[in-house]
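Following up on my earlier thread - several people asked me to post the actual chain instead of describing it. Fair enough. Here it is, all 230 residues.
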Amino acid sequence: MKKISNAVILAGSTRGSIKKAGFPITTSGMTTILISAFILVPALFMRCTAEDVAENSISKNAFVIYADRGDQRNHFAPSGWMGDYGDIRIDDSWSQNPASGKTCVRIIYTAKGSQGANWAGLYWQNPPNNWGDRPGGYDLGSMKRLVFMAHGEKGGEKIAEFKIGGISGEHGDSDSASIGPVTLTQNWQKYTIDLAGKDLSHIVGGFAWSASRDDNPNGFTIYLDDMRFE
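Reply from S.P.:
Thanks for posting it. Predicted structure:
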C-alpha cells in the first residue's frame, strides 16, 4: 500500500524530474505510473474487502441467530427485554459498517434507570417473548460454540455478560453458558462462548447481553453482528 501511495504522489507532478528515495522519474513515466496506480489501488482495496468478509462470514453449517435484517437463516428474535427495558433502543437494520453482509444490530443503552433496576439486558428468543412458558426452541446438541462480532461506538463499553440459555420455566433452556465481564473496543472483535460439555438439547434463549448502570453511568451504544452457533 505504501508503494502505491508514493506512486500517486509522484504522479501528481507534471513537469521535470522528481526524485523519490533515489529513483528519478521523468514526465515520460508519469502516464505509466498513473495508469498503474488507478488499476492497482482499487484492486487491492477489493481484495482486502473480500478477505475481511470471508473472515467474518457465516459458514453453511452454522445455526444462525442473526445474520442480516430479514435473513431467512435467523432463528431467534430480540424480544426478551430485561431490567430497565425503557433504557434500551435497538435497531437490527443498521446499515453503517456491519461486520459483514448489509446490516448489523445497533443498541443504545441510556442508563437512566427507567424501571429502577439499574441494569438492562436483552434476550434473543424462540419464539419471540418466550420466557419458558410455551413450547419452542431448538436442539443444538451438535454445536460446539457460540460466535459473534461486537464493538462499541467509543470503546470502553462494559458488558457484564454475554450469554446463551438460562431461561427457566416448563419449556425453558436445558443449560446455559456465558462470558463476561467484557470491555468492548471501537473496532469489530470476534467473541466466542465455549459450549463444550453443555446440554443444548433445548435452547429457547439463543443469545443475551446485560449491562449495569454502575459500569456505564453515561450509557453506551454498541453493535452486534454475525451471531451464530458453530
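The chain has two domains: 2-56, 63-229. That should answer part of your original question.
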